[in-house]
Amino acid sequence: MKGPIIVSLVIFISLFYMGSAESAICTGVQICADYDVDCNFIKDGFCPQTYGDWGACDMQSYGKCSPCDSDCGSCGSIEIITAAKANPGATVEITVIAHLSGDKTDEMQLLEGTDLSGQKARTSNCAKDETTCLRKFSYTVSSTGGDTECFTATTSDLRSSNIKATNCIQINPAVVLTATGTNNIIPLNARVQSLQEVAKGEIYLFKKDPRTDEFKPVNMNNPTSNDYCSFRCSGTKNCNLLFSQDVSAPRTGAYDFRFDWDSRKCDNMEFKIKAYGFDSLGNFNDDESTLTLNNENPPCIDQCYPFNSELLNTVYLKIKSWIS
């Protein structure tokens, strides 16, 4: 048994040093000539600092053992806080919080990848006596839809004890919408790209309201209805859905969702077309395009009497004031 051997031979203990004995990083103790108790972040039931005189050893994070020995107490901690998802090429904020001994200056390191071998993406010094070191970093993620961007955080001191934190950001699909033309049949193409397989595409239509100068959903439910392409679709779910398609066999890479929009059924107003792309994980992204229609003999929809009548609006306001 290890316990009895150590107790009976404790008078033969000597320390392992890296450097001179007057000022050194201590890595463990030797009991007799053939039994070592090394500093180790893995719990084994033995704290090397229990044996021998550690007075000449340099103080490290949470003790004099290097690397930190979890049997001697807490070895510090670190965490990464960031968004779970981001659009391709977006700049995200990454917050790293390290809990340190504060006995000396330490370098916080944000590494690329999921282990300590990754390249340094960002660094920042944690000052002496800064036991809680919080730093915020800006980082531009991958521009490839469906990619996974991972980071590992540590400090120079925590690294020696293999203490780290890892977090990953899932990149949403890349979506590019193209609308060709301003009249008659307008081809729409929504290209969706993802390494996680493209699953679905949707296109919605909005029209600018001249009274508020804002784009509002327009009714796309029934092309033969008098309400078609009008603002009269409030309260109806997805009333402005122009196109929707599920991919029968989701595929990795790019997929083109195509739809020919018959713009002749709408008035010559400014429109916004918005496309959404979804991948097999449920992540999504969007792109949009604006255009002003220029059809011959366009229908009069929201601007025609009685919907835009000054008299009707006056009567409406009076009735509203009586009711209130």
Outline the structure in words.
- This protein is mostly beta strands and 324 residues long.
- The protein folds into three domains: 71 residues, no CATH class; 95 residues, Immunoglobulins (Immunoglobulin-like, Sandwich); 145 residues, Immunoglobulins (Immunoglobulin-like), CATH 2.60.40.
- It is 8% helix and 46% strand.
- The strands form four sheets. Strands 12, 13, 14, 15, 16 and 17 form a six-stranded antiparallel sheet that branches.
- The N terminus is likely disordered.
Q: How many structural domains?
A: 3
Mean pLDDT: 85
Q: Return Rg in Å.
A: 33 Å
Shape: elongated
Number of strands: 17
**Biggest sheet overview:** 6 strands, antiparallel
- The ordered H/E elements are HEEEEEEEEEEHEEEEEEEH
The parts where pLDDT drops under 50 for at least 5 residues are: 1-12, 18-22, 307-311
Termini, distance in Å? 89 Å
CATH fold name of the largest domain: Immunoglobulin-like
**Class per helix and strand makeup:** mainly beta
Q: Tell me what portion of residues adopts beta-strand conformation.
A: over 45%
